[in-house]
Amino acid sequence: MATKTYTVKTEMGNTWQVRAQVGSHQMIIDQPSAGDTGPNPLDTFLFALAGCVSTIAKMAAREQGVELRGINVEVNGELNPAGLAGKPSDDPVGFKHINISADIDADLDDAEKQAFLDLVCARCPVHDNLLRATSVSHQSR
């Protein structure tokens, strides 16, 4: 199957606000202590994971003939802000641990719900990028 490239270009002026036109949507990331005109990058990251899990659940349910009446996903991440603040830390700069909890509204027993969530997470690209190191390069222009 051919690969698909996603591109997001952001711009930031003299405030903390980061703007991007993503498809037909204007997105804003900001800092609560600055303008608070949008979620911060870490909240946005967790939202992307929850959104991907939810979307893949809908796709998988349709494919398996499961009537998914709804899914509520809670994602929380444990972060030691020392590295983010430029202070020495043995912890990673990013999240030390991320937990996904899903309330699945479908006619499945607990074991079937867990198996369904396992399948969903195995197919979720955002989840996969967290489990396996993704090559990231950076350069200034």
TrEMBL record:
Entry superkingdom: Bacteria
Keywords tagged on the record: Oxidoreductase, Peroxidase
InterPro entries xrefs: KH_dom-like_a/b, OsmC/Ohr_fam, OsmC/Ohr_hydroprdx_reductase, OsmC/Ohrsf
EC main group: oxidoreductase
Record-linked Gene3D superfamilies: 3.30.300.20
Pfam families (UniProt xref): OsmC
EC number of this enzyme: 1.11.1.-
GO terms, molecular function: peroxidase activity
The protein, known as: OsmC family protein
Source organism phylogeny: Bacteria, Pseudomonadati, Pseudomonadota, Gammaproteobacteria, Aeromonadales
